[in-house]
Amino acid sequence: MHTQRRREPGFTVVELMVAVAIGLLLLAGLSSLFTSNSAAQMEIERANRQVENGRYAMQLMTGDLRNAGYYSEYDPIELAVPAALPDPCAIDMATLRDALAFAVQGYDNSNALGCLSDVKANTDVVVVRHTHTCVVGAADCEDASAGGPFFQASQCSNQYELGSSDKTKHYQISTLNSGFTLHQYNCTEVNDSGTPADVRRLLTHIYFVANNSLAGDGVPTLKRAEVVSKNGVMSVQIVPLAEGIENMQIEYGLDSNEDGVADSFTSKINDADWGNVVSVKLHLLARTLSPSLGHTDTKTYVLGADDKGQPNVINASNDKFKRHVFTSLIGLPNVAGRKS
Q: Is residue 27 part of a domain?
């Protein structure tokens, strides 16, 4: 008996073409979803980095400003205020001594300092001075090899130190961590008696906004110039701090009645008033490091008040970068505390 062979059913050409078309549509959808998710993820990363850089810059400057005017046990209020503002770029001992009277010193929309380069136009510069909170060589602190200059404040009240009418006997500054002769409270009336006083690094920090992080890269960056000494040789070195910081504007709180509280704020200070600055309003404008496709920044940003007391309006460049303003009111407790 002959059995007829059964034919297996299959796909027609039309069915195969329909299946391929559906597959291509699904693939296109998945590709579009992947591209969209990737773009969204990149945008989130841009925003996160922008916020991170802005907060870091604000945190760094806030901490430094709060230490302004700290010179260990030494009170600089006894110092005579120089007739002219000291040059923060100067690296001689005489200028460093004169500058102790100025815990902060600012320049409104200026690039007049000779040790700074590539300063972004129409941005502020601020100088912060204090000693390090760490004692040189103490546990968890840098040793002398990290460089100076170095500062020692006397705590000894005998006639050779704090009891002397010569104010240069009340503190010492040196490019090297050697030759210091001042002492702590346990001294006696005998010269050179008692435990040697602590030695700290003397810090002069000049904050400014540069046009570039690296030469020609077009990334605005918060930078800091530092007056340093290495093996006794003084110099100024530039340190990049936070990329994407596009503008910095500062208002200074003036104490006009010697009670340690700011009575007014202004962005432009007379030379004789710098010793009365007891607080700072710091305004930073941060932008993303790379442009966002499809975005145009047409906003205006207010960074405090200008020297006439009017809103300090910064116009965006109609570019594709996103921006954010960071603002903080920072007290200067070392200066204010001596006045209150």
A: no
